[in-house]
Write a structure and sequence with these properties.
Helices cover about 20% and strands about 30% of the residues. The protein has about 775 residues and is of the alpha+beta class. The protein has 4 domains: about 1-215, glycosyl hydrolase (family 31) (Immunoglobulin-like, Sandwich); about 260-450, Alpha-Beta Barrel (TIM Barrel), CATH 3.20.20; about 570-645, Golgi alpha-mannosidase II (Immunoglobulin-like, Sandwich), CATH 2.60.40; about 665-770, Immunoglobulin-like. A 9-stranded antiparallel beta sheet has the order 3-4-5-6-7-8-14-13-10, with no helix packed on it. Strands 26-22-18-17-16-30-29 form a 7-stranded parallel beta sheet. A 6-stranded antiparallel beta sheet has the order 1-2-15-12-11-9. A hairpin with a 2-residue loop joins strand 7 (about 80-95) and strand 8. Helix 2 runs parallel beside helix 3, helix 5 (about 345-355) packs across helix 8 and helix 10 (about 500-510) runs parallel beside helix 11 (about 540-565). The longest helix has 29 residues, at about 540-565. Mean pLDDT is about 95; it is low at about 380-395.
Amino acid sequence: MSFTGVIRFRHRPGSSETNEIHPIFEPKDSIAISWTGEPIPMRSDHSDDEYAQVQSDSISIKINRRDGSWSVLTGNGSTIARLVDQGSKIAFDHTGMIFETSVSLEAVPGEAYLGLGEKTGPINKRGLSFVFWNTDIVPYHIDSDPLYLSIPFFIAVRPDYVWGCFLNESWRTEVDLAKSDPSQIRWSSSGSEMDLYLFSGPTLRDVVQQYTQLTGRTPLPPLWSLGAQQNRWGYEKAEDVLRVIQGYRNHGLPLDAIYMDLDHMVANKAWTWNREVFSDPERLVKQAAAQGVKLIPIVNPGIKVEAGYAVYDEAVGKNYLVSTDRGVPLRGEVFPNPSVFPDLLREEVQTWWGDLHKNFITAGIAGFWNDMNEPSNFSISGSKHSAIKTEDDGLGKIEGRTLPYDARHGKKRHLEVHNLYGLCMCKSSFEAVQRFAPDKRPFVLTRAGFAGSQRYGPVWTGDVSSSWSHLSASISMLVGLGLSGMPFCGADVGGFHGDTTGELLVRWYQLAAFYPFLRNHSHKMSVRQEPWQFGEPFLTYVKEALDLRYRLLPTLYTLMFEAANAGHPVIRPLAYIKADEESLLSDDAFLFGENVLVAPITHANASRRSVYLPPGEWLEYPNLSECLLPREGGQFVALEASLNRVMTYVRSGGLVALTRSASHTTTANWQHIEWHINPSSRVEGLLYEDEGEGFGEHRITRVIGESRRDQIVIRRVTEGSLPSVRESEQIHLLGVERASAVEGSISHHVRGNKLVIEVPVDWSELKAAT
């Protein structure tokens, strides 16, 4: 199968051992795949006695008739990937056949491997190996593997070419990226088949677009979900929630959402309210909304075993639960003990689970936080399993804090579908909001997922620790998620486990100002880490970081629009500009969209560091406000960043759209816009606007500029039917210290070494003589 730039191979290496000499592959319905178009025509050439070739204009495959090995080539005949080995081991136990299937591809010397979703380690993961088995790990370290979410997809980067590889198998899988054998990439799976998609690039952005065309793109989120969010396991009653909201307002801090953890439920029973401490949920929702704040409850899939609890009774009565190999509901332990688990792999169970959202949506709940959905499970009761991990070699094994390999989901074993559980839970939640609040954009935050989860909402990186190492590690983890189709992502600001400090919290907020998803979250046994808890000067510096976030919202919202339409990540590796050696080694800096480079401080007691600037010219622009030095790219530069400063650089020809900070979001039809431009021979930027919610009208504004000798000309073009509510608009020309004349402006003045120009709200062209 193929569409432009993409080709699919289905391997069954063990077919001869199972009497499938020439296996016919049955159609495969994969929830990871959203592309529904017709494959492009492929031409076959069997004239060569040694090789058969199948090709389209953009990609082809050459197959060795003797041993079945193959090579994938570009339209001009250059080799992208080459199969060097494949195999299958088969064993038997009481449940039937057990497979270990593998394929190995050539690892070209010097090739870098990026992506792979939520994985720790450097951005370039060559020389490492990983397991794809969604795992609740408490606490995890900066080299822990596996974690909560699995995306078996990598992007291979060479100096002259980029290609990608996605293994569409939900079984437990592993990848060895030239670790055991420097010449090979080895995929292995517990299933009998290897379903591979190869992407031909030829650039990093091409592969990301091709992969997200296949697996789907994240929908444009509601604007409020890009604002600041707050949570702590331990807001035990409605008054606690209101007190935190009031704390934000009293300290002049922006806030758009607050979360309710386990405390809002009766005895950890999903879809209940503890009326003793949350006596009137509808009133609480309205009280929060009056302060511009949305409420989001936690939802865990573990169902408490309790006769008379309607959710449990109905799940048992309709046979909607994951079962043991003996066919009875599997009992485990999560926060309810004992717990049973809805079989969310089945469409009818997804619909039933989705219907349970209705009362919460009716009460005004704005979004849902799906947690513990690997699924997490602490122990098994009523079966031979008495510990988290056994030494069984067969399907009865339990790997990590989850369900046994041999648990039943209809006709399938948990070993096969484990990695899909979180994805299916999110699909259920997303579709529930579509049914019960069709005029709203769904917001469903998840911890676990698989390729394609991006179609249903954001992910966060789980229970990180309050440490500088986790702060630093979040950069490469979010870059990996973005390259793997998950652009809407973040890490718990301040850390979840352990005790943060005022300095760490400030530096984390400065970094998180550029996270697509920004939430402060902590454990009930840790110190409180709401922004005011550490006093001054930390409170002021956190407020400055949050104000920067809210000023950035026009650009962030536009980047989310681009992610929804083209698949590009918000946080990008420096290699997105040019994949040179230094860019591929830069794990402590990143691009925010196309034009801004962010170089955060990631060590205690530090205010200096060096950063690699990709080729081109960059302008030092700390906090996106103070215009400093131009810097030539393609080299390391030293920087200084005191505790109230985050170092940002604007690319030559780059444009950033900013607005004024506010206590909370209202609309993405911005009343005030500032265009911050680093002039060059060519400037081009985009701003997407709509109401910030729902599915109404929109407007796209394109700003195009050019600089010739001593004159700068900037033009603005708009399209779309959304009426403008603009009240003021400015152009900030960075590095321009004077202007002898400005045509098309109301007024202008110099601020530092940038020229600030007031323009009419209906401006279409500006000329500045400098």
